[in-house]
Design a protein that fits this description.
globular; alpha/beta; Glutaredoxin; 40% helix; seven-stranded mixed beta sheet; 184 residues
C-alpha cells in the first residue's frame, strides 16, 4: 500500500512539474506549541530556505528524522553568522496529545526549530501529504524545491544535499530570487 501511495504522489509531482510549472507550498497560519501564530508568509519573510517536515509523537521515523536534523543543526558551521535555513516541524498530534509533543520536543532538542501544530491536519491535507514524515524544502519565495516521503536512515543526507544545492543556486542568483526546482 505504501508503495502505491508513494508512486501516486510521484506521478502527481511529475505531472505538476510538466504542466503546472513551479509549485508553491500552500499558505497557512498555525500556532506554535507556545500558542503564537505563524504564517507561511511570516516564515518566508526571513528570506531563507525552509525545511518543512510533518511529524507526530507516535511516528518513530519522524522522531528519527528530527533527531538527525538536530545533529546537523548543531554541527552546522556558524562562524560566518547564523544558519542559512529554517526548520519548521508541523506536528500532526491531536489537540489532546500536544502537551506530550511539547515535552518530547524539549527532551529531544527539537525546540531549536519552529514547531507548529497542524490542528486537524489542515495543512497536511492542502499539501497533499499522504503519510508522515514528509519533508519539503522550500525556496525563500515558497516554491517547492524538493519533496521527500517517508524516512529511512541516511535519507537526511539526500535532503541536506538538496538544501546545499538550493543554497548554492541562491548564492548565484541573489537578485532574481528565482530558483530551479530540483529533480525528485
Amino acid at each position: 500500500m505504501r508503495r502505491k501511495v508513494i508512486f501516486a504522489a510521484a506521478i502527481l509531482l511529475v505531472i505538476g512539474a510538466l504542466f503546472g510549472g513551479e509549485q508553491k507550498f500552500p499558505k497557512f497560519t498555525l500556532e506554535d506549541l507556545e500558542g503564537n501564530l505563524w504564517s507561511l508568509d511570516s516564515i518566508l519573510s526571513f528570506g531563507k530556505p525552509v525545511m518543512l517536515t510533518f511529524w507526530a509523537t507516535w511516528c518513530k521515523p519522524c522522531r528519527k528524522e528530527l533527531d538527525k536534523f538536530v545533529e546537523r543543526w548543531d554541527s552546522w558551521d556558524t562562524t560566518k553568522g547564523e544558519r542559512p535555513y529554517i526548520v519548521v516541524a508541523l506536528c500532526e498530534d491531536s489537540p489532546r496529545s500536544v502537551r506530550r509533543a511539547k515535552s518530547l520536543a524539549k527532551k529531544q532538542g527539537w525546540t531549536k526549530f519552529l514547531l507548529l501544530h497542524d490542528k486537524g491536519g489542515q495543512v497536511k491535507t492542502k499539501a497533499g501529504v499522504a503519510e508522515i514524515p514528509e519533508l519539503f524544502i522550500l525556496a525563500p519565495d515558497g516554491t517547492i524545491f524538493y519533496r521527500h516521503i517517508g524516512y529511512n536512515p541516511g535519507d537526511e543526507e539526500e535532503s541536506f544535499a538538496k538544501l546545499e544545492e538550493l543554497l548554492k543556486q541562491l548564492e548565484q542568483k541573489p537578485d532574481s530570487g528565482e530558483t530551479v526546482p530540483a529533480e525528485e
